[in-house]
Amino acid sequence: MGSLAVVTWNVLHRIHAVNWNEPAIEAHPVEEARIAAISARLAKGFAPAPAMICLQEVSGDQLASLRRTQAGQIFATSYPRMPRYRGAEAAPALRDPTEHLVTIVAGDVRARVSHEAVFPTDHGKGFHVVELDGFVVINTHVSYGDKHEAQCRQLAEHARIHAPRCVVVLGDFNADRETCVTHLGPDFTVAVLREPALATRPRTEPSSKSQTIDHVIVSNGRIVEAEVVSGDGLSDHNPVVARIESSRGTPSP
């Protein structure tokens, strides 16, 4: 495998959405229907067809839907922190409110999870490492603010373990491209998204926070293309699709 197509998408856990009054929930008030629509969007596919789809903020109900509807292997890391409503919901919208980091791997790709971790500074954020022929993919959700640098440093350390293989770190970084470059270090390249680009985390109200906080980042490889595609308003994030080539050429299994 000399090239790899990937997708990253924060699909918005229902409880976080309610707590932060996200418009996606107003537009899709029936959570069961929104979950089914997200699963259908993933099953529909992307171009180029990805070998891996990395998801963040996956509820237990969404994970169950993915297991029913998606082809291929599904790897899930569960967070010890249980999301809780700040107020009371009118009716329980989730049977299983747990939160997970999920990677879906195409059925014809050999893959395994070699490591998974929760960040010690945030038990609702973390990463897992998926190894496949010629590539290592780290799916992550990083905290915003003063926890960001240490968490990126931990990701960089795990990436360097696998050198000189091509390592792809992708997910919701809760920070702009420049901050990620600074915190990860010079060994990493952050994808420049094809213009005109949709925001990866669009906001309906003015904010000082970046609207591009979901990234595909590579070490020992080259990002051939990367773009943001519409998430059809199902989440507060849009998916990022990218294709990467290994700097080692066509690797041996």
**CATH architecture, please?**
4-Layer Sandwich
- Helical content band: 10-25%
Strand content: 25-35%
| Total beta strands | 12
CATH superfamily: Endonuclease/exonuclease/phosphatase
Strand order of the largest sheet: 3-4-2-1-12-11
What would the principal axes of the Cα set say about the shape?
A: globular
- Give helix and strand order, one letter per element, not per position: EHHHEHEEEEEHEHEEEE
- The whole-angstrom Rg is 17 Å
The total count of helices amounts to: 6
Structural class assignment: alpha+beta
Give the CATH class: Alpha Beta
- Main β sheet profile: 6 strands, mixed
Describe the protein.
The chain has helices spanning 14-19, 23-27, 31-44, 60-69, 148-161, 177-184; strands spanning 3-10, 52-59, 73-78, 99-105, 111-118, 126-132, 135-141, 166-172, 189-190, 214-219, 221-228, 240-246. With 253 residues, the protein is of the alpha+beta class. The chain has a single domain (3-85, 94-246), classed as Deoxyribonuclease I, Chain A. Strands 3-4-2-1-12-11 form a six-stranded mixed sheet. Strands 5-6-7-8-10-9 form a six-stranded mixed sheet, covered by helices on one side. Helix 3 crosses helix 4. It starts with a strand and ends in a 7-residue tail after the last strand. Residues 249-253 have low confidence and may be disordered.
Features:
253 residues, alpha+beta, Deoxyribonuclease I, Chain A, six-stranded mixed β-sheet, 12 strands, disordered C terminus
